[in-house]
Design goal:
Length: 235
């Protein structure tokens, strides 16, 4: 692992304590088809040592052989100590924006994700990250296409249980920031039945997903991300 990326990863682990382990994927170490933008991409998987007995090497799965600036899926499989069962997690970041061309691209990515689900199987597969579902709140065709993907894959999104996961500048010259649901933790319907709680953190939790001035969102919005962390607890 490149020293420039190992050192901050080690620092994160030390701050949390040594019960945590990490694996870091550097695009420059992989044979991705997507060009230089992916070659500069770095991803850190951080997980607790206690319930996890082993983790395979992280690998990328190109959603398209000519994906340009689009990110591939990053996949890691973790084995639970208690059950000896493997769970596969796929870090997801789909095409952004709500214009027709961007949504068409994203809908094509939904079809690629369906293929991925068929390849891996959905029983213990969890897709998580920024799906950029710009139409989720307003229930437009983008929302319909996303739900069609879930139906075809036999999966469910935990974002059904939250009011927002990010903030943006809004529309129609409104001075307030608008909340939206762009992020998802997607799992099989069988796993969904074991979900005990879903919660969102940072500025989304702070202002309760209400429309507010940017200054009210605080440091997490200003210094970290416009997105908020999403957490699911299982029974």
């Amino acid at each position: 692992m490149n020293r420039a990326y190992r050192e901050p990863a080690d620092g994160i682990r030390r701050k949390l304590n040594n019960l945590w382990k990490y694996q870091l994927l550097s695009g420059e170490e992989q044979d991705f088809p997507c060009g230089i933008l992916v070659e500069s991409y770095k991803l850190l998987f951080l997980y607790l040592r206690v319930p996890i007995s082993s983790a395979n090497e992280i690998h990328g799965s190109g959603l398209d052989r000519a994906c340009g600036s689009l990110r591939p899926e990053f996949i890691v499989t973790l084995k639970m100590k208690s059950s000896k069962e493997n769970y596969t997690f796929a870090g997801t970041h789909l095409k952004a924006m709500g214009d027709p061309a961007s949504m068409q691209t994203r809908w094509g990515q939904y079809r690629k994700l369906e293929n991925l689900v068929q390849e891996i199987g959905n029983r213990r597969l969890i897709l998580l990250g920024d799906f950029n579902t710009t139409g989720y709140n307003i229930r437009n065709e983008d929302y319909t296409r996303f739900n069609n993907f879930l139906d075809e894959a036999g999966m469910w999104t935990a974002s059904e249980n939250i009011e927002c996961s990010s903030y943006w500048t809004g529309a129609d010259q409104d001075p307030n920031m608008a909340s939206s649901i762009l992020d998802h933790i997607v799992m099989s319907n069988a796993l969904a039945s074991q979900v005990e709680a879903t919660k969102v953190g940072a500025h989304c939790q702070k202002v309760k997903c209400e429309s507010v001035m940017e200054s009210a969102l605080g440091l997490s919005y200003a210094k970290v991300s416009d997105h908020c962390p999403l957490q699911v607890s299982f029974k």
